[in-house]
Specification:
This protein is of the alpha+beta class. 41% of the residues lie in helices and 22% in strands. It has six helices and eight strands, in the order ααββαββαββαβαβ. It has an eight-stranded antiparallel beta barrel. The longest helix is centred in the first third of the chain and has 53 residues.
Length: 234
C-alpha cells in the first residue's frame, strides 16, 4: 500500500476546510425571499392603518348622526304656547335655543296640565303680571322697591315688554311661575329666566294689567289660565 506524502495530506486538508462557493441561484432565491418578506410587512401595515382610519371615520359619522338626531328632535318640539285666559288668548313664542332646559320643563308641565286653572296672583301695572300656584307676597313687594317706571332704558331683547319668564328659584313640587312683563325692565335678567315672548295677544296682557288690585297687587277678581295649547308653528 502506497504512503501518501505529508505535503499531499496538507493540500487535501486545505481543500476540505475552504469555504464553499454560493451559487447564483441561492443568491437570487434569498433576495426574492427578502423582497417578499418586506412586501408582506408593508401590505400588513397598510391594511391595519387603513382599517383604523375606517373605524375612526365610522365613529365620527355615528357621532354626527347622533347630533343630527338630537337636533331633529329639538326642532320637533313645539315652538309656541297659547294661554287661554279669562280675558282672551295669549300666544307665546318659546326660546328653544337660548333657554332649552326651562322650555323643556315648561313643555313637560303643559303636557301634565300643570297650568290649567292657575291664577294670576299679582298684577303690577306698568311692570309685570304673575301667575303661580302660591301667593308669594314678599316676592311681589320686592319687585316694587326699585320703582315701576323707567326712562332712558337699555332696551335689549330681554329688557323689552311682553317677555315671558320664570323665577330663578328652584322649582320644587312643580312651583313653576309665569311672569309676563308689561314694560321694559332694565334688571330683568337678575330677576327672571327669560324663555319666551308674547307674539299675539298683547292687548289681553294689557287688559289683565288693568284689573283692580288690593294694596298687595293681588287682583280683586280672580283671573286665571284655563288651558295651554302647544303648537309647532302658528
Amino acid at each position: 500500500m502506497a504512503r501518501i506524502k505529508p505535503q499531499a495530506l496538507l493540500q487535501q486538508s486545505k481543500k476540505r476546510k475552504g469555504p464553499a462557493r454560493i451559487s447564483v441561484t441561492t443568491i437570487i432565491l434569498s433576495s426574492l425571499i427578502v423582497v417578499l418578506t418586506m412586501f408582506f410587512l408593508y401590505a400588513t401595515y397598510r391594511h391595519w392603518s387603513q382599517r383604523s382610519r375606517i373605524q375612526i371615520e365610522s365613529r365620527q359619522s355615528v357621532l354626527e348622526g347622533d347630533n343630527y338626531f338630537v337636533d331633529s328632535n329639538k326642532s320637533d318640539l313645539p315652538g309656541y304656547a297659547i294661554l287661554d285666559t279669562g280675558k282672551g288668548s295669549i300666544t307665546l313664542e318659546l326660546f328653544k335655543d337660548s333657554s332649552p332646559e326651562v322650555v323643556d320643563q315648561f313643555l313637560d308641565l303643559c303636557q301634565k296640565g300643570h297650568f290649567n286653572g292657575m291664577l294670576f296672583r299679582h298684577v303690577i301695572k306698568h311692570y309685570v303680571i304673575q301667575a303661580g300656584d302660591k301667593d308669594k307676597l314678599k316676592a311681589a313687594e320686592d319687585w316694587t322697591l326699585k320703582g315701576k317706571h323707567y326712562s332712558q332704558l337699555d332696551t335689549s331683547l330681554k329688557h323689552e315688554a311682553f317677555m315671558l319668564g320664570t323665577s330663578k328659584a328652584k322649582h320644587d313640587n312643580g312651583g313653576f311661575e309665569l311672569y309676563i312683563t308689561t314694560a321694559p325692565i332694565p334688571d330683568l335678567n337678575e330677576k327672571l329666566i327669560v324663555f319666551g315672548k308674547v307674539v299675539k295677544g298683547e292687548d289681553v296682557v294689557q287688559e289683565i294689567e288693568e284689573v283692580d288690585t288690593d294694596e298687595h297687587y293681588r287682583p280683586k277678581s280672580s283671573i286665571g289660565i284655563h288651558r295651554v295649547t302647544l303648537k309647532q308653528s302658528i
